[in-house]
Amino acid sequence: MASRILSGMQPSGLMHLGNLLGALENWKTLQTEHDCFFFVADWHALSSNYADTSRLKEFTQELLIDWLAAGIDPNTSTIFIQSHVPEHAILHLLFSMIIPIPWLERNPTYKEKKEEITEKDLSTYGFLGYPVLQAADILLYKPDLVPVGKDQLPHLELTREIGRRFNSLYTPVFPEPKEYLTRFPKVLGIDGRKMSKSYHNTINLSDTEPTVRQKLKTMVTDPARVRRTDKGNPELCPVFDFHKIFSPDATRNQVDTDCRTAAIGCIDCKRQVADVMVERFSPMWETREKFSANPKQIQEVVEEGRKRASTVANETMKEVKEAMKI
Ligand code: TRP
Ligand code: SF4
């Protein structure tokens, strides 16, 4: 039997190229062979954005559009919204009864984020309990594999620990899901730092062609290449990373040589990469537009997803309640 896969994303902003090439490309491959559940973790987004919820619905909608445009197929995958399936909250509550607070306090992701994000008050219960909700998200569906990035490994370990604690306190209900590590190709932002929405240096899936071309025009290059006549080193240039990902070998090799001899200028080089990127993204942009113009279709997708997810979630909750004798 095909493995069950479950993964989620927070609707905490617009998706960018880094997310596409990492998570989404992976999901797309997985869905052809496995029983996949993909959900928008809108409650999780509240854990750090509780004070300003004004764009939560918009981000949720845009995220779903990005998934569908990238080729996540609602006929083969179950696509749903976390808050549409209240069992996530119920299991989270029950887990909160059995998880020792020190397990949460020593979570490295928690410590890092808390230090990193200083502009918000994150001394909340929900922020500390983020992994408890994530454990509920995961264990409700008893998946074999959970595709995540490296930063999520502590959360997955906690998920298994909570499951084990539940199983030993009551009766075995939960399996131990394994991570499926998402390999991210190196994608730098237009300022040459890691592409990240907090750096405001992203190319978004919802950007239009002129925006993508404009962003590439302003993208930093090999810093040593100041004048057109200066020779460059493509390995030090974030634009070349895009050539590596998107350009045919012949173009990439040509650019590699021509940059080193100053036979090509950065403006030309960027236009070439813009052209291949536009070609690659055009079908996605078209699908995006179709869905944007038809929100009802998305509602139908998540309604169907809610039904399928609820069926599984309810079965697990029945076992949980029996195990706990409640
Ligand atoms: N914490 C994940 C992230 O920030 C999102 C998430 C929430 C998730 N629940 C999940 C991922 C369950 C996998 C499984 O990326
Ligand atoms: Fe970068 Fe291309 Fe300019 Fe070389 S020619 S520095 S690879 S943008």
Topology:
Elements: E1 4-9, H1 17-31, E2 35-40, H2 42-49, H3 56-70, E3 78-81, H4 87-98, H5 101-105, H6 108-116, H7 125-128, H8 130-139, E4 145-148, H9 153-169, E5 178-181, H10 209-217, H11 238-246, H12 249-260, H13 266-292, H14 295-324
Parallel strand pairs: 1-2, 2-3, 4-5
Helix pairs in contact: 3-13, 4-8, 8-9, 10-13, 11-13
Bound molecules: tryptophan and iron/sulfur cluster.
Quick overview:
The protein is mainly α.
Overview of the molecule:
The chain is mainly alpha-helical. It contains 14 helices and five strands. It has helices at 17-31, 42-49, 56-70, 87-98, 101-105, 108-116, 125-128, 130-139, 153-169, 209-217, 238-246, 249-260, 266-292, 295-324; strands at residues 4-9, 35-40, 78-81, 145-148, 178-181. It has a three-stranded parallel beta sheet with strand order 1-2-3. Helix 9 links the parallel strand 4 and strand 5 (178-181). Helix 4 (87-98) crosses helix 8.
